[in-house]
């Protein structure tokens, strides 16, 4: 029996209106209540952009978890305790800022409810909507007063990010974990971080065999959690590379991926 379900948010759990459909809500609560399944929201989002959804799904009541920043941080919903944390240092932010200026793409990070950004782009505005953080323009590393952050993200046009991705993979693959969460979002994390690695850590903490985990996703940053899960699920709307590694291709995110998976494999 599967004991833990981890799901990506955007493009998987939430629909095109950025809402969790009622059939997903009902089945997730049912799986927790009747089968004792642990539920994890595993996303590149900041945790503040998942708290309301976690409460809607009663993760605080049934002992679920939020895995934010693509695995940089894990929060136990019932106690609101951070049980795992891996960060990017201030010196690393400075280095990424120099790359941002060289490749003419925005570099954003997240500090105290603010979305720090150095260049304007329509998808910086989109990230502001997703996170509900207020945009805060910065110019240099001196404008950032903290010593570490959960993640940084380059935002820009597809062609620029593709070139940047190729450059970073060649030079920085051993220094950072680098992943595309969308064609416009190139995420940079601590080298020891990914959704898959962090979920392995959570399973160790909970005493759950990783093969008793279901992982659901739709994009490139979901690949390693699908690869380690006992059952890997791709949304029908997923990129082809994710469909290719999935054990099961479900319905679209507008139809209710989690409801379909829970009904088929859990209930």
From TrEMBL:
Molecular-function GO terms, alphabetical: magnesium ion binding; phosphatase activity
InterPro entries documented for this protein: Cof (IPR000150), HAD-like_sf (IPR036412), HAD-SF_hydro_IIB (IPR006379), HAD_sf (IPR023214)
PROSITE patterns: COF_1
Hydrolase listed as a keyword: yes
Keywords for this protein: Hydrolase
GO-annotated cellular components: cytosol
Signal peptide: none
Domain of life: Bacteria
NCBIfam families: Cof-subfamily (TIGR00099), HAD-SF-IIB (TIGR01484)
Name of this chain's protein: Cof family hydrolase
């Amino acid at each position: 029996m599967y004991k833990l379900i981890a799901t990506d948010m955007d493009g998987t759990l939430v629909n095109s209106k950025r809402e969790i459909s009622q059939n997903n809500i009902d089945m997730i609560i049912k799986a927790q209540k009747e089968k004792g399944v642990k539920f994890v929201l595993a996303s590149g989002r900041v945790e503040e952009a998942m708290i309301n959804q976690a409460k809607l799904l009663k993760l605080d009541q049934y002992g679920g978890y939020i895995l934010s920043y693509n695995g940089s941080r894990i929060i136990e919903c019932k106690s609101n305790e951070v049980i795992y944390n891996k960060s990017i240092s201030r010196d690393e932010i400075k280095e990424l800022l120099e790359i941002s200026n060289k490749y003419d793409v925005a570099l954003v990070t997240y500090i105290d409810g603010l979305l720090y950004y150095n260049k304007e782009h329509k998808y910086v505005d989109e990230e502001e909507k997703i996170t509900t953080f207020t945009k805060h323009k910065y110019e240099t590393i001196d404008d950032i007063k903290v010593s570490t952050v959960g993640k940084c993200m380059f935002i820009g046009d597809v062609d620029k990010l593709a070139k940047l991705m190729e450059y970073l993979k060649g030079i920085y693959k051993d220094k950072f974990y680098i992943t595309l969460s969308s064609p416009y979002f190139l995420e940079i994390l601590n080298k020891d971080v990914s959704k898959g690695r962090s979920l392995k850590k959570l399973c160790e903490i909970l005493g759950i065999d990783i093969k008793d985990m279901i992982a659901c996703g739709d994009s490139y940053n979901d690949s390693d959690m699908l690869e380690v899960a006992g059952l890997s699920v791709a949304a029908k709307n997923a990129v082809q590379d994710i469909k290719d590694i999935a054990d099961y291709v479900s319905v679209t995110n507008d139809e209710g991926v989690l409801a379909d998976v829970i009904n088929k494999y859990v209930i």
